[in-house]
Backbone:
């Protein structure tokens, strides 16, 4: 990653509402010392001064409109399941990725190795249904595994399709990563708790069943 020679300066709100310049332009949820679970409690950034190039100020928002949007924002920010799942996914992904770094694998790539061992040879379409990945994400991670010699492309029924399977190196890599995956798995289960962990497994089983039924229709 190329770092800019002159990083952009961002304004960060402090406890005293004093404006402080910093070159850290990452979202608040990714900065050290910020707990993403309570992100909605972080005070908003101080509004920047108006630029001299700004030709006109935006029209004044009616109070009723502002109150309605304020109520909507509080409800969404305070209760949105999707928002909290996205935060948890980042935390969980980091735990697995840190554990698998010694194997030069990421969580999605290990999932692919496991899926190929269980269901391979498999087509890209089958892997997409099994893992719930976007086509671009599947292609990107498969290319990396094939480049490392962990997976291989096999001819399909005709020229328009191909299958994917593990190589011997891929089988060995999957076995070698298992102890570190178990360590990450234990940390994630401790983080989520028994009830939350089982709820996630139950939802995943429901998703796979629904996807398989839709594929058969």
Residues:
């Amino acid at each position: 990653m190329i770092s800019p020679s002159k990083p952009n300066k961002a304004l960060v709100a402090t406890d005293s509402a004093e404006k402080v310049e910093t070159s850290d332009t990452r979202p608040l949820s990714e900065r050290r010392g910020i707990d993403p679970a309570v992100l909605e409690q972080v005070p908003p950034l101080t509004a920047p001064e108006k630029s001299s190039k700004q030709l006109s100020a935006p029209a004044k928002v009616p109070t009723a409109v502002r109150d309605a949007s304020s109520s909507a924002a509080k409800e969404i920010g305070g209760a949105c399941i999707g928002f909290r799942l996205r935060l948890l996914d980042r935390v969980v992904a980091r735990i697995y990725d840190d554990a698998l770094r010694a194997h030069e694998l990421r969580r999605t790539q290990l999932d692919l190795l496991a899926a190929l061992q269980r269901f391979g040879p498999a087509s890209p379409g089958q892997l997409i249904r099994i893992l719930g990945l976007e086509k671009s994400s599947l292609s990107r991670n498969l290319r990396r595994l094939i480049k490392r010699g962990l997976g291989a492309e096999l001819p399909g029924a005709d020229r328009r399709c191909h299958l994917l399977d593990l190589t011997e190196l891929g089988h060995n890599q999957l076995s070698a990563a298992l102890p570190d995956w178990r360590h990450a798995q234990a940390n994630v289960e401790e983080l989520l708790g028994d009830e939350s962990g089982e709820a996630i497994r139950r939802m995943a089983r429901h998703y796979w069943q629904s996807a398989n039924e839709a594929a058969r229709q």
In short: The longest helix spans residues 168-192. The two ends are 45 Å apart (CA to CA). The helical segments are 63-79, 81-100, 107-119, 124-131, 135-147, 168-192, 194-216. The beta strands are 10-13, 19-22, 151-155, 162-166.
